[in-house]
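Tutorial handout. Part one gives the primary structure; part two gives the three-dimensional structure as tokens.
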Amino acid sequence: MNLISRYLTESIRTDALDLLVDLLPSRVGSLLSINSLRQDLGVAHDTVTGWLDTLAAVYLCFRIKPWSRKISRAIRAEPKLYLFDLTQVPEGGPRMENLVALHLLKACDFWTDTAQGEFALHFLRNRDGQEVDFLVARDGAPWMLVEVKSNDSRPAPALERWAADLKTHLNYQLVTRPGVKTSYPDTGVTVLSTEAFLAGLV
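Part two.
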């Protein structure tokens, strides 16, 4: 490859990487399709994966995997993506979900580092598309479920179903309105203001 061809190739790759960084805020909280990104960027699947690994290593973004009893299934499934810089995330629901993701990630690291168990952050989604935003696993088992909503005062049906199926110890639906705390003993779900939940994490 001559010098001009090499320069043009590297220039195209740099432009594609810049475009990837620009695209990530719109992907926050959604399933991250490498194939979709590959098509948008015009580069190989492995290239996109490598770039995402690099961006995660420099703390631009992080990915969480779906929780599954079968490790092989979780590895193959699409992850969800969040950013470390909240100012880059669109306001409203995506930014609130990203904020909760950041706090849960830090909490999992803290609990693990202080020998309270082995904690990991995941999300839940089944084949019917029923999803819960976050699942915290403790020592490999489901321990806490967290669903982020705007102002819904009733627990989401998907959250109630997963809480019953997994028998998780803690189940929260977070709302933006301050001063909210309503428990539903029949389902084990507590609807709580986001600020109160985050303040009590660690």
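Part three, for discussion. The radius of gyration is 19 Å. The chain has two domains: 1-87, 89-202.
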